[in-house]
Each structure stands twice: as structure tokens, then as C-alpha cells.
């Protein structure tokens, strides 16, 4: 009766919740709507400790808003396309769908056990044709707007995964998935024109200030990398069979034009081959072969010895008329700026290193007060006054930049410009397990989108195991009957595009689909989506700071432009939960410090694990599983649950006659917990809840007694607060208090401000100078009342042992001193 039996409690409630469906929003407009979303999982296996933490945080938020009376949308789904499924299928001679959907079922079972308060009827899998039909539909809209296009250019290539990667998927020069160094390859690939949105992606961050972690905003700002400067066109002189040509450079320092002593084009850009004179072509080609295998990081590393090849050509500085040798080198990147630079070795370190390697002149044009770069080998990059610079001489840097731009604009050889680090999003992949690109290539019509009524273009059947092994071309290309189709425009023989989409396309719009995942006439209904979005609280790992969040922001802006949504940012607030470590290190196979979630749940119970995750630290901080105490959490839960047995008053008993001190404690806790929840200080809210449990226990044991209505009031508050963190225990406690399920929608306890203000204090009662009792009293208790309370105390009476009283000194509300006769 009075034992807290975790297994029995966990067995009792899921069926009830299934029946009541308390987690499905009503969407009837009666209550304010709130969308709480966790980044949806990838079905890589069963849930792990990281999921347990992240989803505990999101669930706490969803449950809190539900108690506060919001109509909460808290859906769950799976990001279920992607390489791991394909690799597993190759290994097991299976179909990726088998592995994927089996893992989804495993995770779904675990999520249910973990008691995520999700509306399961809205479940979405991005690999379902019913979902990817709309991913394709959206792709077609982007294509029709000119926002999806194909081009041939050097792309990031992972030699191990045999597929291209978006810039965002290259981390320190390596494939973010497998760690292999990424190389460049010239390929015809599909892109989304995210660069058209660079300024809006930057400007709209204003809306997110203070609501997203500052470091995420900084990472996005940095990734977009807006730099102001100028395009300056240099004329490359004709040479023998090679005609004259204008080549623009991007520079942030047009003030240094007089200091340019050579000109560099990216060795791997097609331009380098166009420029090079016949006698140097072989040398350049050999050099290009060498460059091909290098990552961007290696190419730009400052420690590396500079390499390059003279092209045999010369560029004319438009301001000075000076002739500069044109080099091809790898430290200039083909896909940044214009792929060509004017080199100013005195004021740019990489140019200086190059000049010193190849014995090129160094000319100081900004006097910064520092020693000459030519002497020291250290480029001077600070502010200063222009020297040796014709009419720019004497100006400070900013004035010189403005003047230089005026001069080139006057000449027609250049103009002010803004350059971005952000590249268009390379979205095509040469892999099987993804959304097929819904384009048909027709020899006479070109790229023709698949008509809406023929969507989805489903993946071809019959491919499995070895047939999916990476070969650099898409496995889809091997299925002829799938590839060969009539052109939708002219009916002639045509071929399907055989690439699939980056899975980040799937995840760029899933939060919209959750509003009505069964809709089969559109990806979503604008009106419904506008009711629910932007997402009120998004929860997920900081590893998505750029990729997923930037792409989703881009998608939302395009949908806004298409008139499909009326907001421009998808995620109003973002919470990045920390990691779960073990022994101060991330859990990993190689360290052997992994902790199995299922085992933890078996050993301590779901609620204890959830509570531990949330109580361990502020949600943004890491949780070190070696430092926490799930057994301590379990003990606390048992203590809280046992209060239910002590309450003897009936449901609905008016609390107003109850013990003041306990009531005040209850109301203060409820009020503080709300403020703490709103501030994402979930761990502190739990600490407050623990204090309330202790105070209630003490009140029951020290004479207030289980019949006092204040004890019921306190215990009901405990159940409701506990329902955010430990849903099983809270539900069972609620039930023991005589309530019908479910505590999840019981409603946040009403706070009486007067009781909140009336803080209680501890009054010390001394007999002959010795402390014999501590009483919890109201701070404005009267002297008489306090004297009476003190004399009524059992402890005091025992010590007095029948003796009379000489004097009682009362200093309300803190002290009573009794001197016996
Ligand atoms: C002349 C110059 C003089 C430059 C000087 C810098 C200092 P951010 O701020 O990152 O945009 N640059 C331009 N395109 C490049 C490319 N494709 N590969 C490598 N470097 C490139 O950097 C802009 C500066 O980086 C440009 O300004 C250019 O060098 C170089 F005292 O032009 B500067
Ligand atoms: Zn055609």
C-alpha cells in the first residue's frame, strides 16, 4: 500500500494516457496555442542518453505550458532518410527501409516508455512517400522561382562516402560524417539559391536576439560572412594567342590598390587555364593535380609553405597603370569572392608569405607606425595613414577606402560591393536513400519538373544490398525502366534525374507538416500553420547551429515569399541542451564509457532518469552521468509519492483554514516555479519542489497532520509540479489524492499573492537560554500569538516539566525566551 513500486506505477498509466489522449491539442481557439518542438531524431538505433536528455527538456516545456492552460502542440517524427540506413543495408544485403522502420519502431516504443507527452497521431517519417511527395512539390516550387538550379562547378567530394557534400557538411576540411578529408571535384549538381537570402538571413536575426543562444546567432552570422568591399576589374594584357580579358577581384581594402605588386587567380578555377600561356600550361596542369587533393583548410593554412605557378600573363592596375605578374596559387579559393585577388603583401600576411617565397616586391602603402613588413616578415594590418598612394596619400584608411571606390567607379573599373562567405546550398546526392529529385531531363525541353499530379516520384524498387554501394554515380541511374520516361512537356523520350536530395531538405520543413501531417492536397495548410507557428520553443543540440537551423530559416523565408506562411522565422525561441557525458568525457565506444539508457531506465525507473537529467544542471550545461545520483532522485520521488498516503482530507476541501505557514510555502513555491520555468531554470524549479516536499513532510509529522487542508493543498501542488518532470509518479500521486486522471492537464495551481508575500520565518524558542524548539511562523505574527505557540509546544512543556514560569521574553517574530520559576 505504502511502498513506491516503480514497475507497478509504470505499468499502470500508459493505457490511461492512450485512452484520454491528453497530449493532442484541441486547436479550437479556446486557449492560446503554443508549439513546443524537439529536433526530430534520426532512427540510428535505440534511444540513447543524449535523446533522454534532449527530450526530457522539451517535454518539461510542453508539460509546463499545458499546465498553464495553453493548447500545446508537441509532435514527434523521424528524419528517416540518410546514409547510415544505406550503409547498414549494404552490409546486411537488405533494403534501407527495413533497417530504418525497424529502428523507428524501437525508438517509438522507447519514447512511449519514456513518457514523452507527444501527440502520436501526428507522427511523420520523412522517408514515407506521403511525406516526400511534398518535399518534391516544394522543390518544384523552388525550381519554378529560379531558387533551385543546376550548375557545373568544383564541389566538395567525400572519397569514402562517394558523394558530394554541402559546405556546411565539411568540418575542418573533413566530411562531417566519416572524418575523411574532403576533396574537390567538378560535377554538375543541384543547388538552392540560399545566397539570395543572405541579407535577410542576417537582418532577421534581430527577431531572435535574446531568444536564441547568442553563440548560435554568432555562428550563423559568421557563416554568412558578410564583408563590405569592392570589385575592381584588372585588364589582363593580351599575350600571343591569348586575348586581353578583364578579371575582377574582390577586396575589402581598395585603399591598398597602390600596394598591389602581383595578381593571383585560384589555381583550380577554370580561369587559370584560360589565362596561362602555352609554354606554362603543362606546369600549371601538374600543379592543379597537386592542389586537387587538398582540403580548403590545408590550402589556407598560414603555416604551410606557399606554392604557385606564374601564368606568363600580366594584369594592369586600373588606378596606377602598373603591370603586375599574374600567378595561379592554391591559397586563393576558386569559390570565394571572384576567385582572383590583387595581392598586397605589405598588408596581408598570406600575400607577404607568397611574395617572400617567390621573391616578389613588397610595398608599404599604409603607415601604421609598425616596422616595415618587408623587413619583419609580418604584414601590417592595422589602421594608419596612406603613403605612396597618389591622391590617396594622407588619408586615413576609411577615407581612403571611400575615395578609392569613388575613383574606380568614376573610371568604370569597379564598384562598391558586398561579398558573402555563404555559398549556394548544394543539395543533390549520388545516393539511394533520399528524396528523388523530381526533374526530367528532356533533350529538347531541358529540365522539366514532374507535374504535381505525378508526385511522388517514388524510389525505384528492387535495389538492395550491394546494388547500393557507392560508386560515385547514383544507384538510381542503374534502374533503366525507372530512368526512362516520356517528357511531361513534349512527350518525347527523356530521363529522370537520378540524384536524391540532401536529407537536410527533408528536415527544412517538417515542423510545418506536423500541423496536419495527413493532409494530402498540399504540404500544409497556410491558415493552420499560421495559427501554430512560429514554434514557441525549439529544443535541440548546438551541432545544428548552422546546417539545419540556417536551412530551415531559408525555407521559411522562401515560403513567406511564396505567400504560403505569414512569418519569416520558423523558431521563435531556441534552447540548446548540453551533452550527457560520463566521467567528464563524451560517451564513446572507443573510451568504453557509454551508458545504456534502457539499463538506466530498468534500474532506476523512467521518472528517476528524467528527473536526474533535468535536475543535474541548467539545461544548456552538460550533464556528467558519473556525478549524478539517479538513486537519489528515486528516493525523492518515493518521498513525494508517500505524501499521498498521509493526506486524509477529501478532494475539494477548502484550504483556507489550513496551516498558514505551509500554505504560504506552497504558494511561494508554485509562484517561483512558474518564474523559473519561464526562465528555463528547470533545475532550480526542481530544487524548490524538493523543498516543498520536505516542508510538507515536516508539517505532517510535526503536528499539523494529514487532515489539515493545507497538507492536501501542498501535496496537490507537488503532484502538479512533479508532472512536468516525473509523469508516472505524479499521475499515481494524483490518483492517490482521489483525483481522476490526468494530472497532466490538472492546471497550474492558482497562486494567492497574499500568501506569497507572507513569507514564513523560523522563530527560535529557548528555555533558560537553550534552544528547545523552532517554529515556522508568519513574519507578522503578534507577540501574544507567538508566546502562546511557544508555550504550547510539546518540547517546551517537556523541558518545563511542570515548573511554573517566571518570565517570557518575546521578540516577534524570531525569538521566545522562557525563564522557568
Ligand atoms: C587586397 C587586400 C589588402 C586584402 C589587404 C586584404 C588586406 P574577407 O574579409 O574574409 O571577405 N580574398 C578575396 N578573395 C579571395 C579568395 N578567393 N581566396 C583567398 N583570399 C581572397 O577577406 C577579403 C580579402 O581576402 C580580400 O581583400 C582579399 O584580399 C582576400 F591589405 O584584397 B584583400
Ligand atoms: Zn520535352
Describe this entry's structure for a reader:
By secondary structure, the protein is of the alpha+beta class. The protein has 29 helices and 34 strands. Strands 10, 11, 12, 13, 14, 15 and 18 form a seven-stranded mixed β-sheet that branches. It has a four-stranded parallel β-sheet with strand order 2-1-26-27, with helices on one face. A hairpin with a 3-residue loop joins strand 21 and strand 22. Ligand ANZ binds at residues 227, 250-253, 256, 332-333, 336-337, 339, 341-342, 344, 347-348, 419. Keywords: Aminoacyl-tRNA synthetase, ATP-binding, Cytoplasm, Ligase, Nucleotide-binding, Protein biosynthesis. A motif ('HIGH' region) lies at residues 41-51.
Structural class: alpha+beta
* Shape by Cα distribution: globular
Termini separation (Å)?
49 Å
Mean pLDDT, as a whole number?
94
Secondary structure: helix percent = 25-40%
Number of strands: 34
Radius of gyration: 35 Å
The largest sheet, given as strand count, sense and whether it forms a barrel, is: 7 strands, mixed
Low-confidence stretches: none
Q: How many separate helices? A: 29
Fraction of residues in β-strands: 15-25%
**Molecules bound to protein:** ligand ANZ, zinc ion
Catalytic activity: tRNA(Leu) + L-leucine + ATP = L-leucyl-tRNA(Leu) + AMP + diphosphate
Domain Leucyl-tRNA synthetase editing: 221-406
Pfam families: Anticodon_1, tRNA-synt_1, tRNA-synt_1_2, tRNA-synt_1g
Domain Aminoacyl-tRNA synthetase class Ia: 422-625
